[in-house]
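new request in #modeling-help
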Amino acid sequence: MMPELGKYAFEVLSAYGLSLLLIVALLAVTLRRGRRARAALRQIEAEARPDGKS
Amino acid sequence: MSIWEYANPVRFLALSAKVQPFAWAAAAIGILVGLLWGFFGTPDDFRQGSTVKIIYLHVPAAWIAINAWIMMLLASLVWLVRRHHVSALAAKAAAPVGLVMTVIGLLTGAIWGQPMWGTWWAWDPRLTSFLILFLFYLGYIALWEAVEDPDTAADLTSVLCLVGSVFALLSRYAVLFWSQGLHQGASLSLDKEENISNVFWLPLIISIAGFTLLFLALVLYRTGTEISLRRARAISARLEPRG
Amino acid sequence: MIALLIRDLRLALRAGGGFGLGLAFFLIITLLVPFSVGPQSQLLSTIAPGVLWMGALLACLLSLDRLLALDFEDGTLDVLATAPLPLEAALAVKGLAHWITTGLPLVIAAPFLAVLLNMPPQGFAWLVISLALGTPALSMIGTFGAALTVGIKRGGLLLSLLVLPLYVPTLIFGAEAARRGAAGMAVETPLFVLAGMSLACIALLPFAAAAALRMTLR
Amino acid sequence: MRLTLADVAVARGGVPVLSGVSFALNPGEAMILRGPNGAGKTTLLRTVAGLQPALSGSIDGATDAVAYAGHADGLKAMLSVAENLSFWARVYGRSDIAGGLDAYALGPLRDRLAGTLSAGQKRRAGLARLLVTGRPIWILDEPTVSLDSHAVTLFAAAVRAHLAQGGMALLATHIDLGLDARVCDISSWASLPDDLLGASDEAFL
């Protein structure tokens, strides 16, 4: 199944590996930062509107 | 229902919530299909051997790196003209994605060029332009972080984006001129596709579409994050007893 | 406007005004090059135009963050903003004052330093011309960068990060013109582009800088 | 040539601070703003001076007529008092600085470098700048900070002279200057926490 990559196998694999790694890292940072910001917002909103009306 | 409707954060968040699931799903499919098909389904190029497979990462990443800056430029204009917060925050949200895509473009470009040039880095006009673009992204993000007041930050980064775009174009031609040294470079387009036979073409288009959708999904989500941060800041500013 | 220029020049000449700062830095940078790349005169003469241009660029960059920051701290910018003098004009004058106190001395000193780097004498004239045409752009771009970062604490580092990418086109065409001059080749193309860019910077950047400054003062 | 404010609202850091500010200042009149710290005195003064845009409402008669003196004095340490004042005079298209020097008894300090002056002397030189500009409307933010009692009387005399010539003054200060000026407490204009008035945070609430 693995295609014959010839002598440039290392180059191709490293290119794919590094790129996908960077994309995954970007996703992880984005999601983690997003979740934390939204949680902080809910917490502040609860503080500001204890009776729940927005 | 003019598009200015979506400048209102609440309505933007509603739209974003509707669009994001599709965007994330379509992006995943596009990238998976594009890369897998490109990786497994296409023959090697007679000259470059298997390194041609890197095209499925390099071209989409380069495509996003350029268009992210253009999107930021438009968003900055909208902020300066119509003072819509969402567009300023969208520009702020897009910058890191553009930065990462530029880095991927640089990495894959260098690795792809390595067999031909024999070294990991060559001052090829395209790669050098991406390096300069990388610096612009870095400066833009750093300016956002450095200014405390969100409005002033949006203003200053918008001005930097406008002026920076002019200089990015200038650098583009300067680099073309400088690498040839003698005469103006022939091609102007950044990511000119080599003469690709159609067997490579289709997976490339799918991959580009996948990356574009990924960019869209990321920016929608990150803009939502910026809005949440800004809303939390606004509420806490009003919570503290005055004076 | 003239009053602002005279004041800035007088300030720069006074003790601590930083008049000699850019020049001294330019001298040191150029002296360090032979120590770093070795004394072979052939090597030095080939890289001389580029080194001199980079030295001039860094010397300009060095004296930028004092340009507006001092006026910001002691309230002068606030008063200038309410003065009859348009902010654009004030910043253009600031750029001019920076060029006179920093850019011009570099242009004058360049040939003497070129001797140190064994640059072929035929290139001296073109080096001076390219620097004379390029340094105004460096000062004006620098003023824009200073206006962007004036309100930021420790904005000096950020100023360099923002301004260096903007310096790239000027550096490329300027150094290219100097290099061709030294090699005796035709210099028209890079020189004219350099001159064009400088004029555009001088004409347009004060408006961007003034806009940025108004945003910061707001 | 009156200075009139009609229903002006100002914000600081995206939060509305004052709203519904309306008053008029006729030539020869002065107004003193009082209020707790952070109530918006400085913000209001900077808005009237044109350094920042008002959220709403209109300000008439202020364009090209204002001389603003903020917390900092706008003096260059390496220039002498005379050089500083003559610079500001020329920026406003005038040249005589004698009036400013005499009003604040700065004659003897004329050629001293501003950097070598004490805080009080610097403040006097900063206030002398207003005289030198010849602008009718003086906007002063805590002018008497670091002034000794003698200097305060000098300042009050200078303001009276300015008013006598048909000038106007808008000051934020806590000290009683003995001026016959309208005094008003700006907390009456303080905007309520829930007011939005188009302040930049409004979109997020």
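bot summary: The mean pLDDT of chain A is 84.
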